[in-house]
């Protein structure tokens, strides 16, 4: 990607020097942690994950969003990590075949638990949203993007409405996501977890 930090490509590379950076940011930020990787990858040492969480705990002015597909490891080490209220923990759930990840997420004592259904690759009926505070949905983008069906999106929206869970529709995606936009049924959905009663209860 033209950056020295990506010189190893997709090989796991730890950048310990960056752990101090959030402490220098004066203005509160929303930080998407490890946007190009997975913090709970098997090759990331537990000690490093704990250092990341310590940084997040020591920066209560920021909101940190962590997303993983490695939910078995997340669940296994959750009791070895601090869980301050500014850490939002999410799991990727792209189709019905991986809905078991939601149960792993539910076992984690995060103040905010969210699902990222992006890219959404199939319908998800009987989506269990108990103790889930936010759902993000979006289509895949790029030259080889797989299609998204409007019925899949509407199905998740209906289930969010029934459960009182905020719904965020990110994009339709496709080869030219700039052309497909992000409107659903003529409007945008930008709901956030802090707009829900469940979030207010979780955060005291």
TrEMBL record:
Q: So which domain of life are we looking at?
A: Bacteria
What's a Pfam family in this record?
A: DUF5131
- The protein here is known as Bacteriophage protein gp37
- What are the top taxonomic ranks of the organism? Bacteria, Pseudomonadati, Acidobacteriota, Terriglobia, Terriglobales
């Amino acid at each position: 990607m033209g950056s020295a930090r990506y010189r190893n490509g997709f090989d796991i590379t730890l950048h310990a020097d960056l752990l101090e950076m959030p402490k220098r940011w004066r203005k509160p930020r929303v930080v998407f942690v490890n946007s190009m990787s997975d913090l709970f990858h098997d090759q990331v040492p537990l000690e490093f994950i704990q250092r990341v969480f310590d940084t997040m705990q020591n920066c209560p002015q920021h909101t940190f969003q962590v997303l993983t597909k490695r939910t078995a490891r997340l669940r296994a080490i959750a009791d070895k990590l601090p869980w301050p209220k500014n850490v939002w923990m999410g799991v990727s759930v792209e189709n019905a075949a991986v809905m078991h990840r939601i149960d792993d997420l539910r076992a984690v004592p995060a103040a905010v638990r969210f699902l990222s259904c992006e890219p959404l690759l199939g319908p998800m009926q009987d989506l269990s949203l108990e103790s889930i505070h936010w759902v993000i949905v979006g289509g895949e983008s790029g030259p080889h993007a797989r299609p998204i069906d409007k019925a899949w999106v509407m199905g998740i929206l209906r289930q969010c409405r029934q459960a009182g869970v905020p719904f965020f529709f990110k994009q339709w995606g496709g080869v030219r996501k700039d052309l497909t936009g992000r409107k659903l049924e003529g409007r945008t959905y930008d709901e956030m977890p802090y707009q829900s009663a469940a979030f207010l209860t979780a955060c005291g």
